[in-house]
Amino acid sequence: MNTNLSMFADLYQFTMMYGYYKTGKMDDEVAFDLFFRKNPFQNGYTIAAGLETVIQYIQNLSFSESEIEFLKSTGIFQDERFFDYLKNLSFTGDLYAVPEGTIVFPNEPIIKVKTRLFEAQFIETALLTQIGHQSLIATKANRMVKVSKGKPILEFGARRAQGVESAVLGSRAAIIGGCSSTSNVKAGKEFNLMISGTHAHSWIMSFESELEAFRSYAELFPDQLILLVDTYDTLKSGLPNAIKIFKQVFKKHGKPQKYGIRLDSGDLAYLSKKARESLDQSGFYDAIIVASNELDEYTIRELESQDAKIDAYGVGTKLITAYDQPALGCVYKLASEKINNKWVPKIKRSENPEKITNPCLKKVVRFVNEDKNEALVDLIMLEDEKIPSQPFEVFDPIHTWKRKIVQQCKWFELLQPIYLKGGLVYQSPSISEIVDNVKENLDQFSKEHKRFSKPHVYHVDLSQKLWDMKMKLLAEIK
Amino acid sequence: MNTNLSMFADLYQFTMMYGYYKTGKMDDEVAFDLFFRKNPFQNGYTIAAGLETVIQYIQNLSFSESEIEFLKSTGIFQDERFFDYLKNLSFTGDLYAVPEGTIVFPNEPIIKVKTRLFEAQFIETALLTQIGHQSLIATKANRMVKVSKGKPILEFGARRAQGVESAVLGSRAAIIGGCSSTSNVKAGKEFNLMISGTHAHSWIMSFESELEAFRSYAELFPDQLILLVDTYDTLKSGLPNAIKIFKQVFKKHGKPQKYGIRLDSGDLAYLSKKARESLDQSGFYDAIIVASNELDEYTIRELESQDAKIDAYGVGTKLITAYDQPALGCVYKLASEKINNKWVPKIKRSENPEKITNPCLKKVVRFVNEDKNEALVDLIMLEDEKIPSQPFEVFDPIHTWKRKIVQQCKWFELLQPIYLKGGLVYQSPSISEIVDNVKENLDQFSKEHKRFSKPHVYHVDLSQKLWDMKMKLLAEIK
Q1: How confident is the model at residue A478 (pLDDT cuts 50, 70, 90)?
Q2: In 3D, which of B292, B269, B209 has the Cα closest to residue B245?
Q3: CA-based Rg of chain A, rounded to a whole angstrom?
Q4: What is the pLDDT of residues B134-146, one digit of tens each?
Q5: A185 within domain boundaries
Q6: Shortest Cα–Cα distance, B221 to chain A (Å)
Q7: Which of A105, A173, B140, B469 has CB atoms 3.0–4.6 Å from A138's, for a disulfide?
Q8: Strand segments (E) across A346-420
Q9: Are residues A87 and A34 located together in one domain of the fold?
Q10: Do A166 and B165 touch (CB under 8 A)?
Q11: Do both A283 and A332 map to the same domain?
């Protein structure tokens, strides 16, 4: 996925860039914030992901001759010098972002872009697409991990994804969210992910009998022996055949490193219990039972609450497409513009109050109780504002009577420098470092904030100065 | 999107290929069917799409050294000669498919692969992903087109797609489904699609006032003048400012080729009527009103039923992600295997009756009433079965008492040869030819089958011979 994606932008980015060029505004310094307005899936938080592909995108920004020719052919851009600026386009400014795996919340900037209007405008589409998609899948995966009581969640969704790239980057995001492995070999290679998989129904069907298919498979893979038992009849055929094979393998090769069955249809709670009984009766206490078939976090939770005898869950469609909410809905809004060498805050009003933007150059500071190591509030502040000395009071930006005292807290800024003056100053962490980051981040939140159903709403407040500025600007709009 | 996707497969495809190699089955000839089990979105039909990328995928099949090394490093494949077969992998058999834009129905094969088991198994994942995704989006787009009463549907979803490729191929599918244009420049270039777009809120916000922003825009694009009017206040600010600008432009340049406003928030029915009134009062009868903001086919239908004064709809998230059903759920099932030079039918049973597969080498024949040019039934037949002479009777494969006489019908086969003996024998049509194909296809279906709500269920039946064979095989499974 290293291809040059420079042409990936909405047409209006190009028309606006042309407009900024023609009106002499292209070099104006501006600040844009990327954020989302609501946690997906009624989850209490969102896991940020996608920064690595954003960096790749920015590193590879450049237009080929044929791309320039295509843009010329649209007839939209009359002034040919515009294309010279496009040809020389690269990212020359600052970009701050939360590292992948950071727990984030609605309305706080997860990327802040501070650069020339020309390029800040241009990168909007690609940033939104990549961060939105990958954060969504990471969060969805984490919901499944949350309810599986420590049992591995295996990502199996490649065939049901919205295209190949969506499957590959989705696998990576699923691992970030806590999945143990993916079936997607391309993703495994590109991102160094654990891959897993055994065989499909077609393997069974291509042999004269199920037993023969199992036996052949066992001879080839005696140490990784997960047999799919539902091609003809799970309890009457698949399971007894699998047990026969396990006996043969134990006799011939000894105990496999890993062995068991996969259930892929029918009543998984019932079948898993029946299968567990039969396996145990034959002495195969450590044979594992993998279950799949349109699983999502709700079904997994249901199965766990029924004490289903399932040791690992394979999830496909519902994870890789984030089935019940397939878009996070990230937005990218102008927050400030440097006019006559002075930063001027910008705001967008809206009929829908939740769509009013937060103006100004900002930073996001997380305050974490030192004793409990428990996050108390994220405070969105002016970029140059001093961190107040504790104790101090914060308040909900809408229901301003909701107030809270911040004390005995350590704090840190969420947004880290990724680009400074066009130079990449950030070393992307490995996948396992990102996975660790998720765990460390989650450790800093209370059970109530992480709860599966109706979680506590985490506080994201504005500093008094920012709030005052926002109110002032809203009052000024006629 | 021409990259080599050879590594894009579930790991179990590789383990099974290894198994087929080790058990001497790799060269067995087999037939697989690709199909889906349910029309998406409760629509009465599905529009097939994705064949062009499937062809690209097959044309580019080949493993690089680093890919082979990666597979070796997994430690799963003990016999090194396997990798020589992988290195030489190419598609050597036959592949039949319905052309893009064909109207298709549940359970009928839309791709039939007839080749060596080794390669037939391998291509499963990529075929499912590409056909599933693109057919889904084409169908979703068509639902929006269906309810908009001829008003253009503009695809705006790039930023909300599940990744860049999903946005690009989704745009193409949206155009196949009937959208008029896309905002996605990359898709426009790669597939020769009409692109459209004007400006965003950030354009307005980057100027000192809305009026100044409009004026600058109008000076640059006096002939493509769609002004976004909701940055501050649609009726109090955006609309009167737009009208001022239109007056100035008319005076200075004459009437623009295209001009109007875009509404992007608030009550679109109400605002469009208010806007229409004001524009008409100022004499701008042909100013168009574009509406956007989380639109889907239900909202568009609602707006139309309220006689909203909207001339074009911009749709984003809900189309590009197929929001209410983000996966079609295509499957790929073994139908037959050549054993001792004789084709042996294969079937998969299931606890869920709808998941039982149709065995045998098959063809799909559509019977269309000659007088009315109206499709009557799709008949799935044995590949070598003769088309019966009319009149003849067909019957529902589940409720066999539901019968129907086929008479005075022309017929044609849905599956066309794409590859024969590994050679590409198909010339992919242009996008406009595919769009025409959709129209011609839809013309052959009754209004009841195309109805938006609770459409007639179109008959997809099995020939008597195929049905008999299926019953026989089911009875034989112990």
Answers
A1: low
A2: B209
A3: 26
A4: 999 999 999 999 9
A5: no
A6: 8
A7: A173
A8: 362-369, 374-382, 392-395, 403-406, 409-413, 416-420
A9: yes
A10: yes
A11: no
Q: What pLDDT shows up at residue B478?
A: 60
Q: Which two tokens stand for residue A60?
A: 């590879």
End-to-end CA distance of chain B: 47
Instruction: Please tell me whether residues A237 and A284 are part of one structural domain.
Output: yes
A1, A284, A251: which is closest to A134 by C-alpha? A1
Distances (CA, A) of B456 to B35, B40, B143, B450: 20, 14, 15, 8
Q: CB burial class (10 A; 0-12, 13-18, 19+) of residue A293?
A: middle
Least confident residue range of A137-141, A272-276, A301-305, B197-201: B197-201
DSSP H helical ranges for A221-282: 239-253, 268-281
The range of the structural domain enclosing residue A430 comes to: 11-137+326-476
Nearest CB to A164; choose among B13, B67, B129: B129
Estimate to the nearest angstrom the gap between the alpha carbon of A362 and the chain centroid.
23
How far is residue A147's CA from residue A154's CA, in Å, rounded to a whole number? 14
Q: CA separation (Å) from A76 to A83, A413, B155, B171?
A: 12, 43, 19, 21
**Are B129 and A216 an interchain contact pair (Cβ–Cβ within 8 Å)?**
no
Q: Do B170 and A162 touch (CB under 8 A)?
A: yes
**Do residues A228 and B43 touch, judged by C-beta distance below 8 A?**
no
Q: Could you tell me if the ipTM is greater than 0.95?
A: yes
The answer to whether the peptide bond before residue B106 is cis (omega within 30 degrees of 0) is no
Is the Cβ–Cβ distance between B93 and B122 less than 8 Å? no
- Last-in-domain residue among B248, B268, B293: B293
Domain boundary among B293, B310, B341: B293
Q: Which residue has the tokens 């998406």?
A: B40
Same domain, A243 and A334: no
**3-state helix vs strand vs coil in chain A, percent to 5:** 40, 20, 40
**Inter-chain touch B163–A130, beta carbons under 8 Å:** yes
Question: Rounded distance, CA A447 to CA A452, Å?
Answer: 9
Q: Work out the angle at residue A265's Cα, subtended by the Cα atoms of residues A262 and A270, and round it to the nearest 5 degrees.
A: 85
- At B152, the amino acid letter reads P
DSSP structure string for B103-166: EE-TTS-SEEEEEEHHHHHHTHHHHHHHHHHHHHHHHHHHHHHHHTTT--EEE--GGGSSSHHH
Contacts of B136 in chain A (CB under 8 A): 162
